[in-house]
Write a structure and sequence with these properties.
21 strands, alpha/beta, about 25% strand, about 25% helix, globular, three-stranded antiparallel sheet
Length: about 300
């Protein structure tokens, strides 16, 4: 949407897309028509480098190092628009490495592929915005949700609701079997969908934005402006509400072109207080690092 708005405004635009145009939005039934129209408009007006990943940003001259099917590619630019989306953040509680815990985006992809069996019991723990997305995807696919829970308010639904509660642990042998919530009886489920979003901050950090650690589970939030004119739109800017994303991006582009400066991020929800993560929780599943490992390293002077 941002690329189309810039092209209509007469700017010369190159669009770099790590997947195929449309990305995760193609998995959402309610957005497919809008996304299809945008893809058609962009293909007519903008050179599109699909399946091409931007891996680094450099200055003097301003250029982006990209890697795609043809190998390495350098794109030189005057101004930068970051629309890298967001990814799922797991709660830092014991048992967060068990098979059967997935984020809202993974759930949306699996639902779109009809890859979730009908017979399993599905629980949701997350913020209201992301929980609403899970419920919407489940309705589109005809999948039942056993319960929803979260640290704050939750959407109104006929599903069992446990608002303003804290996830203490996830339990099971070989996979998720139950979740333990503060001030509530343990709840059984085979699949736990967690609804917490992490803006894809890496390119913003490379280009000079400050970083803050906020909320629970801990989320890295980009703060301030980069070293050169940069506009951040979509989930990378914290817009986690799915409604009217295209229109919002177009408005942000118009303001940006009018002011000739960066547009401050507009976070969808204010971050909550940061809680102390449990020693047994995994911080990094890929490298097998628990909270206690990091605390031990800090105690050793690192």
């Amino acid at each position: 949407a941002a690329a189309e708005a810039l092209a209509v405004a007469g700017r010369r635009v190159v669009l770099v897309e790590a997947e195929k145009l449309g990305g995760l939005a193609l998995a959402r039934v309610v957005e497919r028509a809008v996304v299809a129209r945008l893809i058609g408009a962009v293909r007519e007006n903008v050179p599109c480098l699909e399946h091409t990943l931007c891996v680094g940003l450099y200055e003097n001259p301003r250029r982006a190092l990209c890697v795609g099917p043809a190998g390495n590619l350098v794109v030189q630019f005057r101004e930068l628009v970051v629309a890298t989306g967001a990814y799922d953040r797991l709660p830092t509680v014991p048992g967060n490495d068990l098979p059967g815990i997935i984020g809202v985006r993974a759930f949306e992809r699996l639902v779109a592929q009809r890859a979730i069996p009908d017979a399993i019991s599905i629980g949701v723990y997350g913020l209201a915005t992301e929980t609403r997305r899970v419920l919407g995807a489940a309705v589109d696919a005809g999948i039942a949700i056993a319960f929803i829970a979260g640290p704050g308010d939750l959407p109104e639904t006929s599903v069992r609701r446990l608002p303003s509660t804290q996830l203490i642990a996830v339990q099971g042998k070989g996979g998720v079997q139950r979740v333990v919530l503060a001030d509530a009886e343990p709840l059984d489920c085979d699949l736990l969908v967690t609804g917490f979003s992490q803006p894809a901050y890496e390119l913003q950090a490379q280009y000079g934005c400050a970083m803050e650690l906020r909320s629970d589970p801990p989320v890295v939030w980009p703060v301030g402006n980069g070293r050169a004119p940069m506009l951040v739109v979509g989930e990378a800017a914290g817009w986690f509400e799915r409604e009217a994303q295209a229109e919002r991006s177009a408005r942000a582009v118009a303001r940006w072109l009018d002011s000739r400066s960066s547009v401050p991020p507009e976070w969808t929800h204010a971050p909550g207080e940061r809680a102390s993560p449990h020693d047994d929780a995994f911080l990094c599943l890929c490298e097998d690092v628990r909270v206690r490992d990091v605390r031990a390293a800090i105690a050793d002077g690192y």
